[in-house]
């Protein structure tokens, strides 16, 4: 389902351009782009920004099979920048990192009030975003899964945030893997650029202390868009 909120639509297009969706979801987005001229224009804008960033990388010959995949996902008719990425692993890392960068290029579509996004990724795996956090202009937070996750029945996934210069992390509650979570502004509190968010694996019912006690599953920092 295509979201109604403008910020969520921009993020959805960014994820589509970066190849973070598959199967029927891709078909749904493409049907939407075919009918919505403004959405299609924004997708093209981000494709151009994306390919421009590729020119900053060292030139190396791209394997033919990888180029075909890149061209198909980016919608490029002619491979005029064949020598872009050195390897599939570098491609995945760059595409994940550019998610925030392309959102910053939205230009005239920016909201007047600060709005934030966070891409939560597994530690040390920048190419594998697991969750997306968006904070609307009224301060409400939405945590959206990008991957499926299953954990032992005697464990809980807990959501935390750490404000800049705060003495310690603060719990935002428990998360059901694979389910979207909406948290009202009154519970979220103020959000700042660079603020840390993370999901940890805790004992059933949550951490027994006022801080995380289990391993970090996904982590990321807020970026203003």
From TrEMBL:
<feature type="domain" description="Anti-sigma K factor RskA C-terminal">
    <location>
        <begin position="94"/>
        <end position="216"/>
    </location>
</feature>
<protein>
    <submittedName>
        <fullName>Anti-sigma factor</fullName>
    </submittedName>
</protein>
<dbReference type="Pfam" id="PF10099">
    <property type="entry name" value="RskA_C"/>
</dbReference>
<dbReference type="InterPro" id="IPR018764">
    <property type="entry name" value="RskA_C"/>
</dbReference>
């Amino acid at each position: 389902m295509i979201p109604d909120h403008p910020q969520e639509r921009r993020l959805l297009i960014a994820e589509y351009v970066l190849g973070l969706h598959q199967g029927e979801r891709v078909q749904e987005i493409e049907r939407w782009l075919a009918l919505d001229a403004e959405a299609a224009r924004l997708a093209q804008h981000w494709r151009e920004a994306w390919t421009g960033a590729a020119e900053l990388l060292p030139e190396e010959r791209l394997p033919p099979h990888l180029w075909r995949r890149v061209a198909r996902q980016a919608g490029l008719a002619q491979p005029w920048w064949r020598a872009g990425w050195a390897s599939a692993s570098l491609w995945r890392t760059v595409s994940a990192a550019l998610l925030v960068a392309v959102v910053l290029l939205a230009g005239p579509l920016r909201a007047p009030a600060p709005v934030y996004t966070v891409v939560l990724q597994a530690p040390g795996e920048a190419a594998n975003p697991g969750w997306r956090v968006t904070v609307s202009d009224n301060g409400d937070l939405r945590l959206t899964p990008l991957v499926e996750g299953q954990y032992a029945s005697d464990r809980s996934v807990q959501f935390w945030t750490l404000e800049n210069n705060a003495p310690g992390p603060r719990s935002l509650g428990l998360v059901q893997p694979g389910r979207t979570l909406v948290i009202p502004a009154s519970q979220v509190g103020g959000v700042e650029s660079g603020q840390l968010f993370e999901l940890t694996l805790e004992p059933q019912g949550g951490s027994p202390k006022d801080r995380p006690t289990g391993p970090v599953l996904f982590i990321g920092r807020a970026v203003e868009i």
